[in-house]
């Protein structure tokens, strides 16, 4: 497709050159526009399906060759986050928000990078610079997490509720909200939210494990009725056993560990080690 476009442009250039020198400039402009389109497509690919570390190299090189372009600066910052290099992403996002064309969304991304590096005060300060009229799912999810870090539970609940209403995939928000309730000691409330998370994403193992923790904290030592594989069942039984042992329900914990070992399709080292330690302590 591009070859045919180039042939057309070249043919046009030959015809224009015969009557006007401006034809060459027109062709150059057309080629430049074509290159911009191709580069934009490549940038999108690197940000979504490309290898994160390769994307970092790509955008770092692009920034060096063409400094000052905010789209390339954003690409580098996003790629650093995708590559799990949050500490490097912070200064990259700081550079983005210093650009004259930066937007509110860039400040939200900087706040996200701060949270990933446990810089909660900086995240809160950055979110405070975002206008209240900028209402997005990610903004409110981060606001909820910051409120959690300050134990501002009423604000946290309000932000989580707003975030849930701004996405069609709220499983991760429900899971975070449930964990917030778990840390507050609201175990039944946490269990309901983990159930909501699994309603939207039945395969989310973190929510399953968290639900078991919430049930165990209420001394409900039966697994919830949720979709699970045999390996997951064994792992959840192990989690519930440890919860029981922590609450000094040793006999129940021992039974659950034995069931976890029997359920697992392979050797379950962690559960076997925990059961051996429990039996050893009992004999002593």
TrEMBL record:
Keywords: TPR repeat. Transmembrane segments: none annotated. TPR repeats lie at residues 171-204. SUPFAM superfamilies: TPR-like. The keyword Iron does not apply. The keyword Ribosomal protein does not apply. This is Tetratricopeptide repeat protein.
